[in-house]
Amino acid sequence: MPIYLPELNHDLSYFPAVNTALAEPDGLLAMGGDLNPERLVHAYQQGIFPWFEDGQPILWWSPSQRMVLAPGKMHISRSLRKSFRRQNFTFSINNAFAEVIESCAEPRGYSSDTWITATMQDAYLQLHKMGFAHSIEVWQEGQLVGGLYGLYIDDIFCGESMFHTVTDASKIAFIALQQHLLNIGCKLIDCQLHNKHLASLGAIEISRETFINQLNSQNTTVQQQRWQPQALVLDLIDKANT
């Protein structure tokens, strides 16, 4: 059955109302436009994100259920804490954004494709230079072994992707992220879509309406000093609930 979608025009701030998104596939809202940084910022401020594969038109989504995690509410298992102690990781913020997004774009074992296309990487590198996109890096013996990236907009961190080359490094990057966000007063991590990996760490699903209401209730000032390149000392492992 054909799917008819609104096509974005030259107006970088225009998106259809999120409650007009399709039920199947869930959350598909619009197509087209471009990945201009201004358009991307407007999208995230409205609870919309791009997700498409190479060779497809740009597709924009706002799913009916949004997976989120409140900093400080993360579940950290005993086994993950033991893994952290064993691995001798160190952490940083925004010291290797380009390397993190490039690693996230590498095809996974279950697929030879990636949705983080070269065009997507370029767009988020621009957002990083503008102070919107940020990365958490996990290091082991001077090598980048895990990390994640996303956007910090209106005091909500919109997670995009994570990677690891060493067991548990992506999970521990997520723990480091939530510690930093807790310290700076962030209220919510947007994980976008449900997956078991994030659910095991305590992320839950809320309705699109609830998510949009929380998004609209946050501050609108980007505070650059919160995201200056820096080392990060992870100190929440032993404080976490089990």
TrEMBL record:
Gene Ontology CC annotation, any one: cytoplasm
Class of enzymatic activity (EC top level): transferase
Location of the protein in the cell: Cytoplasm
EC number(s) recorded for this UniProt protein: 2.3.2.6
Entries under InterPro entries matching the protein: Acyl_CoA_acyltransferase (IPR016181), Leu/Phe-tRNA_Trfase (IPR004616), Leu/Phe-tRNA_Trfase_C (IPR042203), Leu/Phe-tRNA_Trfase_N (IPR042221)
Function: Functions in the N-end rule pathway of protein degradation where it conjugates Leu, Phe and, less efficiently, Met from aminoacyl-tRNAs to the N-termini of proteins containing an N-terminal arginine or lysine.
HAMAP family the record matches: Leu_Phe_trans
PANTHER family: LEUCYL/PHENYLALANYL-TRNA--PROTEIN TRANSFERASE, LEUCYL_PHENYLALANYL-TRNA--PROTEIN TRANSFERASE
Name this polypeptide is given: Leucyl/phenylalanyl-tRNA--protein transferase
